[in-house]
Amino acid sequence: MDTTPHPLTGQARRLAEDLLAPHAQRIDQEGVPLSHVDALRASGLLGTSAPTAYGGAGAPDAIAREVQEILAGACCSTWFVQTQHHTPVRLLARSESSARDSLLRPLATGALMAGIAYAHVRAYPRALVSATPQGRGWRFDGAVPWYTGWGLNDVMLLAGISDEAEVVFAFADARDQPGLEASPPMRLAALSASRTVSLKLDGLWLPEASVMLRAAQETWARHDAARGANASPAVFGVAYAALRLLEQTSGTAESSRTLRVRLDEVRWRAYTLAEHPEPEEHLAERLHLRTQAYHLMRAATTAAVVAGGGRTMDLDSPAQRLAREGMFLLIQGQTAQARSAHLRSLTAAVELRHQPLEGEV
Ligand SMILES: Cc1cc2nc3c(=O)[nH]c(=O)nc-3n(C[C@H](O)[C@H](O)[C@H](O)COP(=O)(O)OP(=O)(O)OC[C@H]3O[C@@H](n4cnc5c(N)ncnc54)[C@H](O)[C@@H]3O)c2cc1C
Question: What residue ranges carry the coiled-coil annotation (predicted)?
Answer without folding.
Answer: none
